[in-house]
Design brief:
With 186 residues, the chain is mostly helical. The protein has a domain of 115 residues. Helix 1 runs antiparallel to helix 2 and helix 1 crosses helix 5. The longest helix is centred in the middle third of the chain and has 36 residues.
């Protein structure tokens, strides 16, 4: 009988780019400083937009990083659509004579912008779950409620820990937040 060819002793594994190694509190502090500077230096009607766009830069950066992990990831598309909608919703906020049609249009754009943000956040969450539980299994669990309230800061909290563990372990497998083992009868 023909013998099956032997597999190589060393299994080849894909090496994925490490997550952004920025502590969530540092990220929050930087965005807070940018928001204050935007309010102080940018004309009154556009300070909020500039500070929101600074937050969006991190969201786009995170989506680009997810895109490096999975080239078919859709979070970048949703994030860019969100930013475009956010800019479009700020245009009706410019000084215009009061008109119910413009007010209704601005309110509709604002609601669509909020919906688009949550779609973006939950798409990023799904892509992180897929990557860190299937492609590079470390047992990542992202709570839906925490994602809703803290979004990018919550992601960065976990990604920072994964980056530190990965740096410490090199390319060796590790478990970040594995589910508890079931109790066994003795």
């Amino acid at each position: 009988m023909d013998a099956l060819p032997e597999r190589a002793e060393v299994e080849t594994r894909m090496v994925f780019p490490p997550p952004p190694k920025v502590h969530w509190a540092v990220l929050l502090g930087i965005l807070f400083v940018i928001a204050i500077l935007a309010r102080l230096t940018v004309p009154k009607g556009y300070g909020i937009l500039v500070s929101d766009l600074a937050f969006d830069v991190w969201a786009i950066y995170l989506c680009l990083w997810v895109r490096k992990l999975e080239p078919a990831a859709m979070s970048l598309f949703w994030c860019i659509a969100y930013v475009a909608l956010q800019i479009a919703s700020s245009v009706p906020g410019t000084p215009v004579p009061s008109n119910y049609g413009i007010t209704f249009f601005a309110a509709t754009l604002a609601l669509m912008c909020i919906a688009m943000w949550f779609i973006t956040v939950y798409v990023i969450r799904a892509e992180l779950h897929f990557h860190y539980n299937v492609r590079e299994p470390v047992g990542l669990y992202l709570n839906g409620v925490m994602t809703f309230f803290f979004s990018l800061f919550y992601f960065q909290y976990h990604l920072y820990k994964i980056a530190r563990l990965r740096e410490r372990n090199g390319n060796q497998p590790f478990y970040y937040q594995a589910a508890p083992l079931p109790l066994q009868d003795e």
